[in-house]
Design goal:
- It is a single chain.
- The chain has about 170 residues and is mainly beta.
- Helix content is about 15%, strand content about 35%.
- It is built from 1 helix and 13 strands; from the N terminus they run H-E-E-E-E-E-E-E-E-E-E-E-E-E.
- The strands form 5 sheets. Strands 1-2-3 form a 3-stranded antiparallel β-sheet, with no helix packed on it. A 3-stranded antiparallel β-sheet has the order 4-5-6, with no helix packed on it. A 3-stranded antiparallel β-sheet has the order 7-10-11, with no helix packed on it.
- The protein starts with a helix and ends with a strand.
């Protein structure tokens, strides 16, 4: 019986640690996909080949690799072309959806607090940034006026959150 309990504990502790570590690393994952011909860039969950150029939000973005060989979107010149890819906005953690360098209009997901003031995520454009340890996050890249919405594309609405959810600079 003692041996069975020790075996159960031996399995339970590493499993609990893995679950805990997994929780702490939520969203850490590759933001590139490989099709066998090299590194590809992700945009809204779709893989694009190296060298591909797409239009989004009034800009061209080119799929390249960074100095570490990781997939990266380089922001190019302004364009009058309509978006050639879906732009759902920064609605969720970017891992497995967007490669570093991708830009999206902010949404309620990117709301944050400064002290007791709520800052509406939809007021800004966000870009995907790699944190150096394999994780990705959204970082404000400019005001929403920097994004050109296609005539038929939806615009993010204002946040349904209120400043009452801000406590000491944290969104609760």
């Amino acid at each position: 019986m003692i041996t069975a309990v020790r075996k159960a504990k031996a399995f339970t502790l590493p499993a609990a640690a893995a679950v805990t570590a997994g929780g702490l690393e939520f969203g850490v994952g590759t933001a590139s996909a490989s099709t066998g011909s090299g590194v590809t860039c992700l945009w809204a969950g779709t893989a694009h080949a190296q060298g591909a150029t797409l239009a989004a939000g009034g800009r061209d973005f080119r799929c390249e690799t960074d100095s570490r060989g990781a997939a990266h979107w380089s922001k190019g010149a302004a364009t009058n072309r309509p978006s050639t890819v879906p732009n759902p906005g920064a609605y969720a953690h970017p891992a497995r959806l967007f490669s570093a360098g991708a830009h999206q209009p902010g949404t309620e997901y990117t709301d944050y607090c400064v002290g007791s003031q709520l800052v509406d995520g939809a007021d800004d454009v966000y870009r995907v940034v790699a944190d150096g340890s394999g994780g990705f996050y959204w970082k404000a890249a400019g005001p929403i006026s920097d994004w050109t919405f296609d005539p038929d594309s939806p615009r993010p609405g204002t946040s349904s959150r209120t400043a009452s959810l801000c406590y000491e600079g944290n969104l609760t």
